[in-house]
Write a structure and sequence with these properties.
This protein has 337 residues and is of the alpha+beta class. The chain folds into 2 domains: 174 residues, Ribosomal Protein S5, domain 2 (2-Layer Sandwich); 154 residues, Alpha-Beta Plaits, CATH 3.30.70. Helix content is 36%, strand content 25%. The protein contains 8 helices and 15 strands. The strands form 3 sheets. Strands 2, 5, 10, 11, 12, 13, 14 and 15 form an 8-stranded antiparallel β-sheet that branches. Strand 13 and strand 14 form a beta hairpin. The longest helix has 23 residues. The two termini are 22 Å apart. The C terminus is likely disordered. Bound molecules: ligand 2P0. Pfam families: MDD_C (PF18376), MVD-like_N (PF22700).
Length: 337
């Protein structure tokens, strides 16, 4: 019997991925950029065991057995085994089955990129178990699109690619976390309920019905990606923050432009947006940026020097007795799993 355990972090997009051009291969309509967190508060942990005594592949998610027949899961397993057959045929015999145990220590499916960390962790663990080397981000991408970004640390770009096969739709590192060590993220967990519309379904509906999505993917994001890379390389927080907020707002505008609309933010999310704009206006400069994924929870980017004042502001605006809003502090990471 042989066993490997890995942990993988969540990533938070500053240029959002929303919409696929190929559902099977999970090829996106536009590039996206994220930062990978380094905190044990927000990560997935996966153990995979292989044994000649196992009679079938099985998986447990957060302690509950799930079907191994999930096509994305099956595909990741199949592809790692295919690479292993070529690269390392003697590490795990082909006849052996695997048992997979995976858990998240944060709300699953509440718009906190749980599938990104989960599939990144699964693919990295399988790759290690089977002794596979090289870039496996294209395999993680086929588990969940945003998972390919969690395979790398620091500032990461997922290139949409142009090949029909998806071979160039991979993640690359723009810069390691050490490039901008003062950058901090606060994750405000507004709600840990499962979202009504999953990202996968939400983006399918957007592709089918939103007129704004095409404009965003083809006219807006390419320019934003260039500006964002420059802001990151120059450690220009004002630019970084403004693009981050505009991109979050545009992604939610696309969600609302979808028919029927996908509403991910709630009243508390909108209160947070207003609070941050007022805070920045009071300082006469952008000190904090917000971004929201497919859920109501807020991620706030700021420099380390601002953390005490912002935490104080959040405590003041959302007293614990009135509202459940947990603040998790995320740092960036150098590497992933
Ligand atoms: C992102 N999201 O860039 C965007 C922003 C949500 C909003 O990537 O269908 O769970 O598995 O590829 O990766 C969520 O999408 O969707 C996502 P699939 P995924 O982080």
């Amino acid at each position: 019997m042989t066993r490997v355990t890995c942990i993988a972090p969540v990533n938070i997009a500053v240029i959002k991925y929303w919409g696929k051009r190929n559902e099977t291969l999970i090829l996106p309509l536009n590039d996206s950029i994220s930062t990978t967190l380094c905190t044990h508060d927000l990560c997935a942990k996966t153990s995979v065991m292989a044994s000649p005594e196992f009679t079938e592949d099985r998986i447990w998610l957060n302690g509950r057995e799930e079907s191994i027949k999930n096509p994305r899961l099956k595909n990741c397993l199949l592809q790692i085994r295919r690479v292993a057959r070529d690269q390392t045929p003697n590490v795990i015999p082909e006849s052996w089955h695997v048992h997979i145990c995976s858990e998240n220590n944060f709300p699953t499916a509440a718009g906190l990129a749980s599938s990104a960390a989960g599939y990144a962790c699964l693919v990295a663990t399988l790759a290690q178990l089977y002794g596979v080397s090289g870039d496996v981000s294209a395999i993680a991408r086929q588990g969940s699109g945003s998972a390919c970004r969690s395979m790398l640390g620091g500032f990461v770009r997922w290139h949409k690619g142009v090949e029909e096969s998806g071979s160039d739709s991979i993640a690359t590192q723009i810069a390691p976390a050490s490039h901008w060590p003062e950058l901090r993220i606060l994750v405000l967990v507004v709600s840990d309920h499962k979202k009504k519309t999953s990202s996968t379904i939400g983006m399918q509906n957007s592709v089918a019905t939103s007129e704004l999505l095409n404009y965003r993917a083809h006219q807006v994001v390419p320019g934003r990606v260039k500006k964002m890379e420059k802001a990151i390389m120059e450690k220009d927080f004002t630019q970084f923050a403004e693009i981050t907020m505009r991109d979050s707002n545009q992604f939610h505008a696309v969600a609302l432009d979808t028919y029927p609309p996908a509403v991910y933010m709630n009243d508390t999310s909108h209160s947070i947006v207003n609070l941050i704009h007022k805070f920045n206006a009071a300082h006469g400069q952008i000190k904090v940026a917000y971004t929201f994924d497919a859920g109501p929870n807020a991620c706030l980017y700021m420099l380390e020097s601002e953390v005490p004042e912002v935490v104080g502001l959040i405590d003041w605006a959302f007293p614990a007795k009135d509202m459940k809003i947990n603040v998790l502090r995320g740092l960036q990471t150098e590497r992933n799993v």
